[in-house]
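Hey,

The postdoc asked me to send both predictions to you directly instead of through the lab channel. I've kept everything plain text so nothing gets mangled by the mail client. Protein one:
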Amino acid sequence: MALPLRMVHAHKGKGMPSALFFGILRATPVLFLAAFAALLLAPRDAAAVRIKDIATFSGVRDNQLTGYGLVVGLSGTGDKKDSAFTMRTMVNMMEKMGVRVDMKQMKPKNVAAVMLTARMPVSAKPGTRLDVTVSSLGDSTSLLGGVLVQTPLKGVDGKVYALAQGALAVGGFSVTGNQAQAQKNVSTVAQIPGGGVVERAVPFEFNSQDHLTLSLNSPDFSTTNQIVDRINKALGGTFAKPVDSATVNLDIPSDFRGNMVPLMASLENIEITPDTAARVVVDEKTGTIILGRDVRISRVAVAHGNLQVTVQENQDVSQPGPFSGGRTVVTPSTDLTATEEQRNLNILEGATLQELVDALNSVGAGPRDLISILRSMKAAGALHAHLEVI
C-alpha cells in the first residue's frame, strides 16, 4: 500500500524589527542585552531564517589540520608485517628515542599507522583543545584500546599548528572467529575528544577589518538583494553592496570598528525569507521525493499503469517404471505471465504545493511510480521545476 504525500505546516509569527534592534544596540549595553534576549525569544515567521544559517562571513571559518602517527597498545589487531610504512615508522620512532632495533625482527601486531584530521577555528589560541579523528591507514582490524603517540598536526602550508596525543574512543567493535564474525559500526575510526592542543595561532585579527564579505551557501539574486536591503535598513545607511548572486560586501560602520563582536552578533540574527528556484529532488535508491515550495505543474492528463511480467522455468521429469529398461526423460518448460493494471486518465494541475500533492496522491501511485510520472511530466513540459536525480 502506497503512503500518500503529506504537507507539514509550521506556526507563523513576527519578530522584532531590525531598525528598532539596532537603535537599542547603539543606546546602552544593558538595553542591548535585553533587546537581544527579546529578539531570540520572540516568535518567528515560519519561512524566515537567520542570515548566519544561510551564509558565512569572511574570517569566520575553520582551518583543516592533518597528521600521520602511530597508535600503540592494540590487542593483536594492529597492522600486519606486510605494512612496510608502519615498520619504517616504528624504526624511526625508536631510533629517535635512542633505541636501535632490527626491522626484520619487529612484530607490529599491536601497532597501527593512522591518519589524523582536526578542524581548528580561526579564533583558536595556543592552549585551545581540539577534537581529533583517527583513521587506520594499514590493514589493522580494530583500534579499540589503542593510544595515540604524540603526533604533530600540520596545515596546508606545512607548518605545525597543534599536537595530538591520548587514548582513543572507538564507537564500535569487531570480533572474528574461525567460522564467524561479529561487528558493530566501524572499529578502524576513532575519536580523541580534546586530544589536540593548539601550539600556533593563525595570524588573523578579526577586529582589525574595515569591511566584510558575506557569502551565501545557495546563490540566489533575490535572496542576496533581500539581505542587502535588510542590512542597510538596520544600519541606517548604504553599508552593504551586492557583488553577485552569492556575495555581499559590507563596510564596517565607524562606530563598530575595533569592536565588531556586537555588530556581528546582531547582523547574523537578522531574519530574511530565502528565495530559491523551484526544484524536485528524487533519490531513486530509496524512492524518496522532495518537492520545493515553488514547484508548479500545468494542466495535464496522466494515466499510469504497472506492467508486471513473470517468467518461471520448470523441469518436468518422466521416470520409467522399475525394471522396465527405460530411461528418465527431463522436459524443460517455461511459464510466462504478463499482468498490466488498467488505470484511467487523471487531470492534474497544481497552483500551490498542497494542490500539487493532492493531485499526485489522486493517481494512487507509489513513490517509484511517482518518479516515473514526474520524469514524464518534465519531458512533456508540464512540470515547471528543475528535476534533480541523486
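Protein two:
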Amino acid sequence: MAGGRRLSAVDQGWPLARPFAISRGIKTEARVVVCEVEDADGRSGRGECVPYARFGETVDGVIHQIADVADAVAGGVTRRDLIDILPPGAARNAVDCALWDLECKQAGKRAWDLAGLPEPVPAVTAETIGIAGPREMAIQARRLAKAPLLKIKLDGQDVRARLGAVREAAPDARLVVDPNEGWDLHRLENLAPFLRDMKVEMIEQPVPVHGDEILRGLAYPVPLCADESCHTAQDLDRLEGLYDMVNIKLDKTGGLTAALDLAAAAEARGFGLMVGCMVATSLAMAPATILMNRARVVDLDGPLLLREDRNPGLAFTDGRIHPPGPDLWG
C-alpha cells in the first residue's frame, strides 16, 4: 500500500427532488465531499461524506482536513492508522471509504470479503417523510404507501395530527419516528400511549444530546435509539441505561473501519443496531450496506431524496436496498 498514492477531494451539490424538512431546518440540496485515492498504477478508490453543521463541520473545513493528511496517505497510512490522525467525522469517513475502495481494487475482492463478513443481502430500508402539515405528510405517505418501512420526521408541534395522518394514509407500513432532538421528557412521556397505539417501532434521538440523562432508567413502551448521542464505540459507556439501540452513521463514526468497531462493541453490550445516513448519493450509502445484515433498522434512503443519483448507483426495488456493484464502490 505504501508509496505513490495521491489524495484529492472535491465538493459537489446534488439538488433534492423536493425541499426536505427536519426539526432543525429545511434542505434543498445535498452538499457532499468526494475523496479519491489513486495509487501508482492508476487504480483509484472513492469515498463520499456529508459535512454536518450540527457537529460544527463545513465543506471547506472538511476539504482542509482531508488535505492535511495527503502526505500521510501518500506515505502509506493504513485505515487503522487513520483513526489516530483524524477525529471522527465526515473527513475521516471520506478518506477511510476511499482507502477501502482502493484496497478492493488492488486485491480484486469485495469490501465484505476484506472485512471477513458475509455478502450483504437486499434489506428493507426506511423511506423518509419530512416535516410538513398533516395533510401534506399524508400525501407523502400515500405516495410511499407500498414502502414496507417509513421514517417520520417530527418536531414538537402537532405530533398527534401529523403522525395520525401518516398512519391513516399508510395503515400497513412499519413506522419509526425521528424528532432530531426536538422533544423534552414531558412530551415523550405524554406521547407514550399514542405512539404505542400508532404501532411505532422505534424513536430516534427524541431529546437533545446535552439533556439525554433524563432518559436513564425510563421504562418506555417504544425502543429508543441514540443518533446524535452516539458517534463511536467510546460513547457506549454513557449510553447504557439511556437507549435501547444506536444509529451507526459513517459520517459520525468517521468511516467504515470505526463503524465496524462500533457495531461489534454495541452488539456485545446488547444494543440493537440501526444503520443510517445523511442525505447524499449512492456513493455515500454503499459502504454502509456492509452493516445491513446486522441492523434491526436500515435507513439508507438518501439517494431517493435526490433529483437524480450517480450512475451507476445503488438499486432500490420494492422498498429494499441492494448492495453496491464494484463499479460504484468496494
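Summary for protein two, as requested: The chain has a mean pLDDT of 95.

Thanks,
C.
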